Amino acid sequence: MVVEERVTPAPFKFAKIHPQLLEEGKSLEMLLRGEVVNFMVQVLASGGETNLHSHSGSEEIWLVLSGQATFYTTGDEIAGVMNKNEALYVPANAPYWFESTSDENLVMLRIGAKVSTEDKRTDHTPRNFPLSTEPGGRIPPVYKEGVFFGD
User: Fold this and answer.
1) What count of other Cβ atoms lies within 10 Å of the Cβ of residue 60?
2) Is residue 81 included in any domain, yes or no?
């Protein structure tokens, strides 16, 4: 595999969307972070977000690159079902959770922007992700050996 060396002059930042795919679990990778905007990629083999929650000081756009995501709001009402190249805007303070609803890995981009200096996550239901007995909590994802999104 040929690796391209990129030189990006300050204050610019460069990121490549190339996460490793999963056998099971969920992975997150922060790609870029600025003072107001952040950009991450998330991969889910199955399951989904931990619980119904909201962010008081940030807005988000979720863009599906592969698979299908179903987003829910209060009362498990469907807020949106997104397939490849479809996106959902989540305003600040809007409660949501999501899950992968296809057999292939769900690969999504999350673009977040601060709308307030105080960005607090509020859990509206208990977090229900599988826990590890190790300090730090979550059971780590199981990666597909040598298989990456975009290959």
Assistant:
1) 18
2) yes
Rounded distance between C-alpha atoms, residue 80 and residue 70, angstroms: 6
Which residue range(s) make up the domain with 36? Answer: 20-116
Beta strand ranges found along 25-133 (DSSP E): 26-33, 37-44, 53-55, 58-66, 69-72, 78-82, 87-90, 97-100, 106-114, 121-123
The C-alpha angle with vertex 87 and arms to 70 and 67, in degrees rounded to 5, equals 50
Q: 7-17 burial by CB neighbour count: b if 16+ within 10 A, else e? A: eeeeeeeeeee
Q: DSSP letter for 19, please.
A: P
Span 54-78, average pLDDT: 96
**pTM score:** 0.87
Closest by alpha carbon to 150, among 14, 17, 15? 17
Residue 49 lies in a domain: yes
pLDDT band at 130 (very low <50, low <70, confident <90, very high): low
> Domain of 53: which CATH number?
2.60.120.10
In a domain, 11, yes or no: no
How far, in Å, CA of 51 to CA of 46, rounded? 15
Tell me how many degrees the CA angle 11-13-17 measures, rounded to the nearest 5.
Answer: 170
